[in-house]
Amino acid sequence: MNQEKVIVIDFGGQYNQLVARRVRECNVYCEIYSYKTDLAEIKAMNPKGIILTGGPDSCYVDGAATCSKELFELGVPVLGLCYGAQLMNFILGGVVEKAPVREYGKTKCITSGSSELFSEVSRNTTVWMSHFDYIKEAAPGFKVVAYTADCPVAACENKEKNLYAIQFHPEVLHTVEGKTILKNFVCDICGCSGTWKMDSFVEHTVEELREKIGDGKVLLALSGGVDSSVAAGLLSRAIGKQLTCVFVDHGLLRKDEGDQVESVFGEKGDFELNFIRVNAAERYYKKLAGVEEPERKRKIIGEEFIRVFEEEAKKIGAVDYLAQGTIYPDVVESGLGGESAVIKSHHNVGGLPDFVDFKEIVEPLRNLFKDEVREVGRQLGIPEDLVSRQPFPGPGLGIRIIGEVTAEKVKIVQDADAIYREEVDKAADLYEKTNGKKAPWKPDQYFAALTNMRSVGVMGDERTYDYAVALRAVKTVDFMTAEAAEIPFAVLQTVMSRIINEVRGVNRCMYDLTSKPPGTIEME
Ligand code: XMP
């Protein structure tokens, strides 16, 4: 593809995908390659710039991740970050050793106004440091252009040769002006014009998928969530009817969700593919009857999914590829991201590959962050309410109904949840229209759950003995920690009143104030 490209060379740091993301935010196409990639291959890609990432090694130790000296002689601008900065200086004759003081965290950094890297950046700025080793002496020909109290070479450059090295991490948001620094490199130093957009990603990926898959058959488990839906859209664009999507409706989806997925991807939708919807609700409810223990419920739902999918896969027969909607955070969590260390194993569609007869896995979204995936979805014409959907757990409403799951309880929680989401969205939209900014209380995830508690109430002149609905709403950045969102009381009152009036079997509404930890976001 004839477009400007920046290459990120991965030395195993935790933030490497963020580097690529920042480059893409400059509207420049970017790909990540292992440090083991052949120099000839890199050269053939004709990059406008090369960025060397951080990594866990010490560059002066035998066997450390390295690159060839010729990389710095290609005439292409190179920026080394953290380990990449140390390696560049080390290879070119500088001195790198264990630092007398380990720097970790936000640090004040003094920058030089003469460096293009720091154009439009404050002379005294805050950066994010994380290193044991340091550049004691920059390589010959390099000039120091930034320092901190403990780091004599926080950045250095050899302008003539277009080589730049930064000890801190401009890619993380704690480096307050990091985006500007990276933009200076990508746009001014490398001279990229910034014409790449998500539609180019779509075009590029569709081409790649066609090339890879040829006339092969592909199978995808479609959950109705954002990731698998966008993966389905992309694959459909690339290979049409060679793609079969199996959508297992386990009867634990949100209100009308199953029908909506079918209307988008089914026969009447806009996508060309083979769509198989399996209505397995009854089967699931039967398996779940009488089961109250949360882990047991999760297990049953997971296992049943595999059984249903297996049955469908058998009908289809052998396929060439199994597609998955894996996105970059899944890759990082399961430690599959190039050179970086394992953080925790990922539970997404675990076990599927064991029984489907296929040759290879395709994961067209594995380099994207969630918001980028949503943007791709929009480009493909997937409806906004599907694309901007909140996270929804695999076991679905099964873990939002405390205790035994029954068809009746599913209906109650679906109806209550639909009202709750509708009212919160309406109030948040109104706030945004009136104030010209996003409502500060707008939760990142919000849903209704059904408690297992029944209590006495009065409706009209009659005594009631019905269920209590719990309203959950959290503000969170990473879903690892969360706070209850401060939804305005008036909005909650409207929700309460509508739920109790419109949903049969509910006579009480509670708002869940628990943060995470100690609570979890879901109830079970
Ligand atoms: P918890 O309840 O662990 O939820 O605080 C954190 C985030 O993860 C989602 N979640 C799941 N997602 N399968 C999933 O795909 C699951 O089994 C699952 N359990 C929780 C939850 O919705 C929240 O966004």
What can be said about this structure in brief?
By secondary structure, the protein is α/β, with parallel strands linked by helices.
Structure description:
- The chain is α/β, with parallel strands linked by helices and 524 residues long.
- The chain folds into three domains: 5-189, 3-Layer(aba) Sandwich (Rossmann fold); 198-395, 3-Layer(aba) Sandwich (Rossmann fold); 400-512, GMP Synthetase, Chain A, domain 3, CATH 3.30.300.
- It contains 14 helices and 18 strands.
- It has helices at 16-25, 39-44, 83-91, 178-189, 198-213, 226-239, 257-265, 281-288, 294-316, 328-333, 370-379, 384-387, 407-435, 489-502; strands at residues 5-10, 29-34, 49-52, 78-81, 95-111, 124-137, 143-147, 155-158, 163-166, 218-222, 243-249, 274-279, 321-323, 360-362, 445-459, 462-475, 483-484, 506-511.
- The strands form three sheets. A nine-stranded mixed β-sheet has the order 2-1-3-4-9-8-7-5-6, with helices on both faces.
- α6 packs across α11 (370-379).
- 44% of the residues are buried.
- Mean pLDDT is 92; it is low at 335-351.
- The chain binds xanthosine-5'-monophosphate.
- Xanthosine-5'-monophosphate binds at residues 391, 393-395, 445, 479, 516, 520-522.
